[in-house]
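Subject: Sanity check before I submit

Could someone independently write out the structure tokens for this chain? I want to compare against mine line by line before I put it in a report. The sequence has 373 residues.
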Amino acid sequence: MRLALSSLVPLGRKTVTGMISASGGQFADWSADYRLFLKRRFDADAMFDVIRRNVVDQLDADAPLVVALDDALLRRSGKKVHGAGWRRDPLGPKFQTNLVWRKGPCRLRRRFHTAVFRNKPQDATLIGRIRKDAKLYHLPTQCAVGRGGKKSYGDRAPTPGQLRVDESVAWETATVFAGGEPRQMRVKTMAPVRWRSAGGGKDLRLVVIAPAGYRLRKGGKLLYGQPPHLICDDMEIPVEKLVQAYAWRWGIEGNFRDEKQIIGVGEAHVRKESSVESPPQFLVATYAIAQLAAMKAFGNESSAESLPLPRWRKDKPTPKQTTSGIISRLRVELWGMALGSGKFSGFARGGEKTAKGEKFVPDLASSVFYAMA
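---
Independent answer below. Compare away.
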């Protein structure tokens, strides 16, 4: 618990040394703290089980648990770090393939189809992205027999890209909550189809979503993003629920950003296999526990007891809890009295603007509590 709290509040890099220093252990024997990760002396599965149970408790009785699955690469500099190697940079330009030295679960993509499509739990529904030129097939006819027995695939079906531009197939409208408001999305579906990557006995449903238009500035040219093409193994799920579940998937990108930039996943200076894998697990678990604690304490909306907003954000209150806001609140609770600021008494809530400012005096509490706000 000491290292978990210390992993959230440091002002510097989130290394193991940074956790030790944030808890005041830099002048004591810190070997036990390093062995916690080196010897895997914490149960990561038990930590995530607590998180999953609490997430399920927040759901309605008949609501599904929607889980987003993706891989993330962590930049590393050491050439002797376990599992590190040259990986394709997903943030590189489209016209040039860039390689970066990273640590990442590269085996996930190779095992995805086998592990997820063919060994999926019976009570789970899979929704995934598919290439626009993926080769799909209709179901074989009853009497279709090939070499070695009954055929698993019939005639070639349109690719996702071909279905999108096929004018003979009408668009449907689905209402989806995304970006803080209900939105109308146009979709096309085709089912059942089969895909060799999923296996010959798996009937699938193809869903094509029309690209949404956007403008870079008011009055600017209307631009369109890449249209998503989805595959689903549930023939009965309503199309609105299917597209809504996909829209929620964007939240994992925000998680990755906060975990890397704010929580510091991947910043630990370690090389051995157990030490490389343990700190990210530990930090992601503490990040999730902090999010759950804020949700239970304040709900989904921004807390009325959070830090007073800076003057430049007075007219733009945060609609929901942010990771930086949660950490700032945690710092206030842990360090507020020690820094002599009480609760929020040290912060000015107003004041007149003057052309000539007073002599600058650094404020320790403001520097600490607003470090990431």
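---
OP: Matches mine. For the report I'm noting this point. The chain has three domains: 2-105+252-298, 124-248, 311-369.
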